[in-house]
User: Fold this.
Amino acid sequence: MLDIKIVKTTAPKQKPAADQPLGFGKIFTDHMFIMNYTEGKGWHDARIVPFQNISLSPATMVYHYGQEMFEGLKAYKAEDGRTLLFRPEMNAKRSNNTNRRLCIPEIPVEDYVQAIKAIVKVDEDWIPTAPGTSLYIRPFIIATDEFLGVKPSSTYLFMIILSPSGAYYSSGLSPVGIWIEDEYVRAVKGGIGEAKTGGNYVASMAAQVKAHEEGYAQVLWLDGVERKYIEEVGAMNIFFKIDGVVITPALNGSILPGVTRDSVIKLCKSWGLPVEERRISIDEIYEAHKTGKLEEVWGTGTAAVISPVGKLRWKDEVMVIQDGGIGSLSQKLYDNITGIQLGKIEDIHNWVTEVK
Ligand code: COI
Assistant:
């Protein structure tokens, strides 16, 4: 249990108007959570302070070797006024898995969730309520030793910032076009692909720029060895519905284990749909499309929730899915997940936690 000191701002910022388009991750609330780690002392000095810049030496390790991790989750305002979180303990556990891979000290799951609840409580008036909006929560840890040698830092900062946000893609729930990348790779087994760390995202940028130039929203990665098997999309996991079967790549060590991915698998199974987590090749997708069996494709992510894919570009082929529209399963998943998150649909899986 953390002893969290709270210092409230004396100069609250103007909150966005109810009908203001928020975009994603552009606006920040009045406060932030910070906690220090010092070797020999552990995590200490948990506090909530006014949102502010932090001052670090240019020699700070995170600037040089990227020893950092981040998470993403959301808070929602239910119609009855409750503030709800969706499966925050999964983010806390995944954070510790990432930390182990990156030699960052772990944070007890209860402390992690306590910190998230505490900062969300302080800024709960910032949770937007327009359809499709929520308060995006970004916990992250950076290495703070002033040192230019390559080794794990002995000091860290854990911070949580909050951003009232709308849809991740400017197109909202409208289907996105995805570019299947065959030049660059994102990650390989044994690397850091399953860790939630900036390095995986910077590795994706050159391909993303290329995809954007071609008019595609995101990149779909193939495995780094054979360049044949589907891995994930830049900010999402990926699902296919082929001939009535829901298929998603198995977690193989180079794919991010998404919270929304896990929730979609559980929901589909609870609706009696066959779900397969397995290796799936781009040739299989191409073949399924050619024979009319590729019924739906969608991405899953905390930021993106459910993002229907309207077209896939593979070399010179463009596969149009559902005539570029939203498939009925994608829509049902979106409605159910957001319904549970907003407290409108019965939470039979026990996924929602109230912030009191
Ligand atoms: C999320 O979905 O929360 C993520 O962390 C993806 C991020 C790159 C926006």
